[in-house]
């Protein structure tokens, strides 16, 4: 695809002599494309617009082959002789479309990575684990097999429920004076009851290496992680370095302060 004055479009060139064959038009920007047989499928990004299908040899748009509105996320499309597969914009699963009947099916339990929607091979769908910071309960390389979901017979609730020490206790409340993590607290409220002293002025500035995470602030210390694998504690009043910890991998998510301890994860 390439940019033109009228917007984004697609150009088809001959593999034999490099000459321009056609420029099929689409409703919007074409973010990704795939092909199978003699059909090329194109789709916009983030679920905007419709799928476009074109003849791979002539570039002619074939409306009979287009499956309809596109709900694809940023992950590329994948076409097989029978199916068109993509990660849908809900973010947490797959959609696959029967190329002949246009019937759509969805599977919402596994999230693939942003670079590939899964690889169908040997009767399996091989899914690469998500490598980004998006929240999803299962983060692993997974092989999916066809079949119906087994009906699970659950044990009696009285046998399954185990009451731990926290059972029946109200949720712990945080200290409003502590900016515990990204956007302040576990609810991501982004607020504090502490009133600033006006007018505001810059107290200090400190240049640190790497790409920094959002801050956590507790007591008289500021905590920050970095892509250079370090967690640093700075004096809140002066910016002076107090200590640092070198982790095994890059730190890309804000640390979390809770009751005198600092929690963080690394790559």
TrEMBL record:
Pfam family of the protein (one): PQQ_2
Domain Pyrrolo-quinoline quinone repeat residues, every copy: 202-264
Protein's recorded name: Pyrrolo-quinoline quinone repeat domain-containing protein
Q: What is the source species? A: marine sediment metagenome
